[in-house]
Amino acid sequence: MQQPPLVAMTKYPMPYDDVNPSFKVNLKPFGGLKGKSPQDIISLVMPQFKNAFQDFVLVQPPKEVFVSGIESAYARMNYTMEIPDGRSFQTTSELWIVPRGDYFFMIGAGTRQDERTGSREEIQDILASLKIEK
Questions:
Q1: Number of structural domains in the chain
Q2: Is residue 7 situated within a structural domain?
Q3: Is the bond preceding residue 38 a cis peptide, omega within 30 degrees?
């Protein structure tokens, strides 16, 4: 069973007739991934995106970053999101893996590639406001 996110937010009230910038935090157990680096974990997630979107482009390969002072990993990808009514939107997804004990935070954000409805700078501001106790 899929756990609901700890936090999920969008910029605009739903429903919204375009890409609604979003930010979501999930907590997952390491399980069999215990001992893997955040970059290794994020690399294992990338094929799911690549398989889901034909025009998937990895814009920022997994790299080390710090989130709330914790060594973490980050990656960014672009793709076309198609919705049931036939419209499509050029979308950017950002993903962070933040280890914490026997768990890791999987933080995801989505925006339009052209940032017309919300910017990745706004996403960075939200990320910078996170406080994760060590």
A1: 1
A2: no
A3: no
Rounded-to-integer distance, Cα 56 and Cα 88, Å = 14
**CA 111 and chain centroid, separation:** 10
Report residue 81 as tokens. 């999101």
Q: Is residue 71 part of a domain?
A: yes
Alpha-helix runs per DSSP H in the chain? 38-52, 120-129
CA 33, 68, 7, 83 torsion-angle sign: negative
**Per-residue model confidence as pLDDT tens digits over 38-90:** 999 999 998 988 898 889 999 999 999 999 999 999 999 999 999 889 999 99
- Give 48's strand partners: none
pTM beyond cutoff 0.85: yes
Range(s) of the domain holding residue 55: 20-129
Q: What's the gap between Cα 127 and its chain centre?
A: 11
Q: Let me know if residue 24 belongs to a domain.
A: yes
Instruction: For residue 72, give the CATH number of its domain.
Output: 3.40.1000.10
Beta-bridge partners for 123: none
Residue 65 lies in a domain: yes
